[in-house]
Write a structure and sequence with these properties.
By secondary structure, this protein is an alpha/beta fold. The chain contains 16 helices and 14 strands.
């Protein structure tokens, strides 16, 4: 995309203004973004990618918006992101940090199906409490929207309800903040029943304090002498329309919470069955579009959807894998993270994130080719810190997309994170080293056995090979002599079988 002219707030320092203009120009040119310009690239390990074909079969059609010119005339508006203008504040830090944040916002907007037309980056010490960007900048933004024909403005922050309304009143088009944008992407990509319920709950939590009445007719309650002095018989409806909507939303939220809670026993039962079989688990966590699904496909051949987009996969996927010595374990792909992940989503997806807290090893995937990989590390760990039990679980840092990353970046990340492994899910480089590291950190069976298993109990011998660590076997006349490390439950069964045969 050719970059339109960038606009910034005038600043006494001409060099600062030039830097801000350069930032916006690079963002709109999409150079160096987390979404690579080469598009989706798949390897033989990614399978047929039928889910990707299904997603591509439905696309948003531009130019079909029915938005009114004055957005204040409408109470409810479906979130349709088509032609958008980005707005960001550069309040602190370097120009590069502001650039990375707006690049990510542009990538999020394109993932939601919109076309980025223009952008404004304002240098100020703090957001304006009224319109977030100030009245003068809001008027300039209105001119930009009118000249470009945009129907949506996306702000790179979470707006207070009053700020969003004030900004909409000035620019006369729909205003969406970063949180609403992420929620819209989640709503598009959720497929499972649980995922859809979690997204809907997060959307309702976001919408509840932002309901907007339709003029005074929807918020006025008249009764008694207040009703023009008419008294009895002229009272208003009692519950206003906006209050009725709020009550309905709270009722729906309560129902969704019950549904999500009702799905918890099923997840617990599946985890319990894996625990009963003494199968260790590895949870894949990381920033969105870091290549978690690609790495899962490379390690297990799962054929999970792989797309060059943010939040391409939301529903957790659990697949079997095995170490070089034959020990089985499970790999669980979890939802991706992002900077300033909406708190509504963190709460709604807490049940999904339980997979991380219940795992034996966390495989933390980092996009080493991203402009700010250290920010990715911090953002993911900020979320994981709130999950119970995570601090006691060993973590492996996988620097993915090493084939695209600069050698200096890889060296810097390895210095910051000793033990990090550079891998490429696309080429397979470093995958063998990663598998060896996973095998090293997986919990080892606690009980050591040295006994003879009768030939009639080959099922126990098979379980020892798959769930335990076999040191040696020897075939004797009365059975198979097994020296191995297994879990306590299997050790009891093996001992009983050996005693029964003796």
């Amino acid at each position: 995309m050719t970059a339109p002219s960038a606009r910034t707030t005038p600043h006494p320092d001409a060099s600062t203004e030039d830097r801000a203009q350069d930032v916006v120009a690079r963002i709109l040119a999409r150079a160096g973004t987390a979404i690579q310009a080469s598009g989706d690239q798949h390897s033989a390990h990614d399978g047929d990618q039928l889910d990707l074909d299904e997603r591509a079969a439905l696309r948003r059609v531009a130019g079909l918006s029915t938005e009114l010119e004055d957005v204040t005339e409408v109470e409810y508006r479906q979130l349709r992101l088509e032609r958008v203008v980005l707005v960001g504040l550069w309040t602190r830090g370097s120009a590069e940090n502001a650039e990375v944040s707006l690049r990510e916002l542009a990538a999020l907007a394109e993932t939601a199906g919109s076309e980025v037309l223009d952008g404004l980056l304002q240098r100020r010490s703090a957001p304006d409490p009224g319109t977030y960007i100030g009245s003068g900048k809001a008027a300039e933004l209105a001119d930009v929207v009118k000249s470009t024909g945009a129907d949506t403005v996306i702000v790179d922050s979470e707006l207070a309800p009053s700020q969003r309304r004030a900004l909409e009143d000035v620019i006369k088009v729909k205003v969406i903040d970063r949180t609403a944008l992420i929620l819209d992407i989640f709503a598009q990509h959720a497929k499972s029943r649980e995922g859809k319920a979690q997204v809907e709950l997060a959307q309702l939590e976001y919408l509840l304090p932002r309901l907007r009445g339709w003029g005074e007719s929807m918020s006025r309650q008249a009764g008694g002498r207040a009703a023009g002095g008419e008294g009895i018989g002229s009272r208003g409806p009692g519950e206003t329309k906006i209050e009725l909507d709020r009550r309905r939303i709270r009722t729906r939220m309560a129902k969704l919470r019950r549904q999500i809670a009702g799905m918890a026993p099923g997840r617990a039962a599946r985890r319990s069955s894996r625990r009963t079989g003494a199968v260790p688990s590895v949870a894949i966590a990381g920033y969105t579009n870091a290549g978690k699904s690609s790495l899962l496909n490379r390690l297990t051949g799962a054929g999970v959807l792989v797309q060059n987009a943010l939040f391409a996969t939301l529903d957790p996927t659990v697949r079997r894998a095995e170490t070089a010595d034959g020990r089985l374990y499970t790999l669980a792909d979890t939802v991706g993270f992002v900077r300033n992940l909406p708190t509504q989503l963190v709460e709604a997806f807490r049940s999904t994130l339980e997979e991380v807290g219940e795992s034996d090893v966390i495989l933390h995937v980092v996009d080493a080719s991203h402009p700010g990989p250290e920010g990715q590390l911090t953002a993911v760990r900020d979320v994981l810190r709130d999950i119970e039990g995570v601090k006691d679980i060993p973590e492996i840092i996988a620097l993915n997309k090493a084939d695209l990353a600069e050698p200096e970046t890889l060296a810097r990340l390895r210095t910051r994170e000793p033990g990090a492994i550079a891998v490429s899910a696309k080429t397979g480089a470093g995958v063998a080293e990663l598998q060896a590291k996973i095998a090293e950190l997986l919990p080892r069976p606690a009980a050591e056995v040295d006994l003879v298993v009768p030939y009639s109990r080959g099922d126990l011998l098979h379980r020892a090979h798959t769930a335990g660590e076999v040191i040696s076997t020897e075939h004797l006349a009365e059975g198979t002599r097994l020296v191995a490390r297994v879990d306590q439950a299997l050790a009891v069964e093996l001992d009983a079988a050996a005693r029964a045969a003796s």
